[in-house]
Amino acid sequence: AGNRTFTMIKPDAVEAGNTGAILDQITASGFRIVAMKMTQMTKADAENFYAIHKERPFFGELVEFMTRGPIVAAILEKDNAVEDFRTLIGATNPEDAAEGTIRKKYATSVGENAVHGSDSDENAEIEGAFHFAGREMF
Ligand code: CMP
């Protein structure tokens, strides 16, 4: 048991062949995968998923990036999942990310930053439900 967070391995990291290494680091850090799939977001999906950012100057770039290729979406379970996963991935901008974090190792810029992690328990629930049906969550 424990609580849950939602993640996406973003198109840059999937394209670069880093999916396996990232999943390995996630599970080695104590997270259990309770839902997972490879999928590609449509423009409408990305606009809805990132609706909170729609007034930001980078919104168009973000939607373009997140739809350009497949992602790997997953729901992860661990005690203190949201906070611990954000520590594991590191700062949004890889230049600010701590040594050893997933973004430090695999992200190339603030936009193409390899992975997503939910920022609250409430958003983890919303984001997980956006990508997975009940029968796909274990
Ligand atoms: P994430 O925190 O997963 O979700 C919002 C995303 O917006 C963020 O990752 C970045 O990929 C992207 N983002 C944030 N700031 C910028 C920026 N200044 N320029 C481009 N993309 C950004």
What would the keywords be for this entry?
138 residues; alpha+beta; 4 strands; 40% helix; globular; binds adenosine-3',5'-cyclic-monophosphate
Name the shape in a single word.
Answer: globular
Count of alpha/pi helices: 7
Ligands present: adenosine-3',5'-cyclic-monophosphate
Structural class determined from secondary elements: alpha+beta
How many strands?
Answer: 4
Q: How big a fraction of the residues is strand?
A: 15-25%
Q: What is the topology, as strand order, of the major beta sheet?
A: 2-3-1-4
Radius of gyration: 14 Å
Q: Low-confidence stretches at least 5 residues in length (pLDDT < 50)?
A: none
Give the termini distance in whole angstroms: 11 Å
Share of helix, binned: 25-40%
Order of helices and strands: EHHEHHEHHEH
EC number: 2.7.4.6
Function: Major role in the synthesis of nucleoside triphosphates other than ATP. The ATP gamma phosphate is transferred to the NDP beta phosphate via a ping-pong mechanism, using a phosphorylated active-site intermediate.
Subunit structure: Homotetramer.
Domain Nucleoside diphosphate kinase-like: 2-136
